[in-house]
Amino acid sequence: MEYFLSLKILxxxxxxxxxxxxxxxxxxxxxxxxxxxxxAVVLESSFERSGGLYFPKLIYEYFVDEIxxxxxTYTYMGDVPSSKKxxxxxxxxxxxxxxxxxxxxxxxxxxxxxxxxxHWSQFFSFGVxxxxxxxxxxxxxxxxxxxxxxxxxxx
Length: 155
What we know:
alpha+beta, 4 helices
């Protein structure tokens, strides 16, 4: 019985860590929908590869009160493609030298984002991760349900 409780506490702790790490981007994502828009120019449009995943590298500049700002935030929590085809499509949408609109934090003008908000894919991902951790936390009772009387030595 102690193992059941330890596993549940471990999965709860992992879920709380994930929820904590997602809180700030989620909050900024929601707030960013109400930020004022500014004109920006794309200075660099490329991608980077890490392992089997691809990441867009969009660096843009914008001016707020005649002060130049640089940033590279595409979205806080959202639809960032990780396949090569998806990332190439994204950087073609924002070629070097193109004019774009960015949403700028009125409380911190150095903070901006191209795609504001939180997107359905993030809610879906968080839900799937939550269900997975819940299933792992209850793995022993689930196995007991499908294989009754199998504890402690199932062979």
